[in-house]
Amino acid sequence: MAAEPAGETGGVWETRRRRAVFLQERYAFAGDLLKLYGALVDVQEAAFRAAKGERVSSAEVARLAAEIVLPRVVQVTTTTGPALLIAQIQERLAAIDPIVLIEQWLRGEEQSPVDRYLARASTAPILEALGTAAGEVCSGPRDTLHCPRCGGLPQVSVLEPSGDSLEGPRRCLLCARCSWQWTYPRMTCASCGERRTARLRVFAEEGTTEAEMSGSIVRGLEKDKRTAGSRATPWFPHVRVDACETCHRYLLGIDLTRDSRAVPIVDELAAVPLDLFAQEQGFIKIVPNLLGV
Ligand SMILES: [Zn+2]
Ligand SMILES: [Zn+2]
């Protein structure tokens, strides 16, 4: 299934932008991250449209990302991003040719957070525009634990209505590199494939049905609740942590059957308290998100 249904691509960017604005108001603690993301969406939408319109070939991806998109990413980060990131970017770009960062990301190599940020923000819209051809420029295994299109790692797990009442909701993983989605079995670790229920941990916020069912409750969000007065309702009724005791990895899961307006790629960025909780329990995220969380 396509993350970008043909003919609705403009709608996807507008949906992401609107969701970022909406969540900025709802989650003050993620306001700065979402503001930066919103600025990046404008740059990424322009890059997506340009790449689509010019029918970019896979051979041109790295050059286009490095020469056209990356300078704009740097520009909006400089006006909207945190001071530390801005300083790191300036230092890094003085030392390395941007195309090297881009190529490392496309090859799936280990990178520093600042390198990954620049490469990922600059390449994502072009890979989305390329569709299936994105696979030609990206290295990585094509198996159930990686994106079948580009070989990237899963950023977020998504539960969505399947339209089949017998089958129940369908689980997909969304690629960190090209945003493609692929179907993946429920109650299976997205990092190592572990299926033994006793090895899989689900953490959800206190007050959610997920937490009541799993018995694993995130209580660490209380301090955040104080900033908005006393709240009877949870912050993240539609988000959970899927963690694994076998590989000690985790990723966040967005449940669209609980909030049909959620936009997984955006909501994942906002759920920082759940990330912090999972990391305090000793789990490592399968892959940090665009903003390095
Ligand atoms: Zn992918
Ligand atoms: Zn695992």
Number of strands: 8
Helical content (DSSP H or I, runs of 4+): 40-55%
- Specify the overall morphology: globular
Query: From the coordinates shown, what is the CATH architecture of the largest domain?
Result: Alpha-Beta Complex
Rg is: 19 Å
Helix count from the secondary structure assignment: 11
In the CATH scheme, what's the topology name of the largest domain?
Answer: FdhE-like fold
Could you spell the SSE succession in H and E letters?
HHHHHHHEEEEHEHEEHHE
Characterize the structure shown.
This protein has two domains: 126 residues, no CATH class; 132 residues, Alpha-Beta Complex (FdhE-like fold). Helices cover 45% and strands 13% of the residues. It is built from eleven helices and eight strands. Strands 1, 2, 3, 4, 5, 6, 7 and 8 form an eight-stranded mixed sheet that branches. Strand 6 and strand 7 form a beta hairpin. Helix 1 packs antiparallel against helix 2 and helix 1 runs parallel beside helix 10. The site of one zinc ion (ZN) has 8 residues, from loops.
Short summary of the structure?
The chain is an alpha/beta fold.
List keywords for this structure.
293 residues; alpha/beta; FdhE-like fold; eight-stranded mixed beta sheet; globular; disordered N terminus; binds zinc ion
